[in-house]
Write a structure and sequence with these properties.
28% helix; globular
């Protein structure tokens, strides 16, 4: 799957603290992280910002909005330091998934694993949201 994604999109470099994706936005691009770290955060019901995950080189971010195509982004993704990623434009991921069912199944497994982890028993750290330094 990774090799298929590496042939897509454009390589882009981001500085520390750059916003890669913003919660609530309706854009549909996907990023394949090549190097560096990101934090995935969301504003929860009480208005606090909670850390949902840390993603590193080799991970994708933004795939849920790209796959769904209708819901706004569910989280904000911020570079924790210098970062390199391939940016897949709107529609590129969906085209790849339709053309290559094995890639679709692999990405579905990644998303399912992330959602399984996010269930209440897997996210007890969200009870006390973290204060995140910018």
């Amino acid at each position: 799957m990774r090799q298929e994604l590496l042939c897509q999109g454009t390589e882009v470099r981001f500085d520390a603290d750059a916003l890669l994706l913003r919660q609530g936005m309706n854009d549909r691009h996907v990023l394949l992280l090549l190097s560096g770290l990101t934090k995935v955060t969301a504003v929860v019901e009480n208005g606090e910002t909670s850390l949902l995950a840390v993603r590193a080189g080799g991970d994708t971010v933004g795939e849920m909005a790209a796959m769904d195509g209708s819901a706004p982004r569910s989280a904000t993704v911020t570079a924790c330091g210098p970062l390199t990623a391939r940016v897949l434009p709107d529609g590129a991921l969906r085209e790849l998934l339709l053309r290559r069912p094995e890639v679709s199944m692999a990405l579905t497994a990644v998303v399912a694993d992330r959602l399984r982890w996010a269930r209440p028993q897997g996210r007890h750290h969200l009870v006390n949201p973290l204060t995140l330094a910018a």
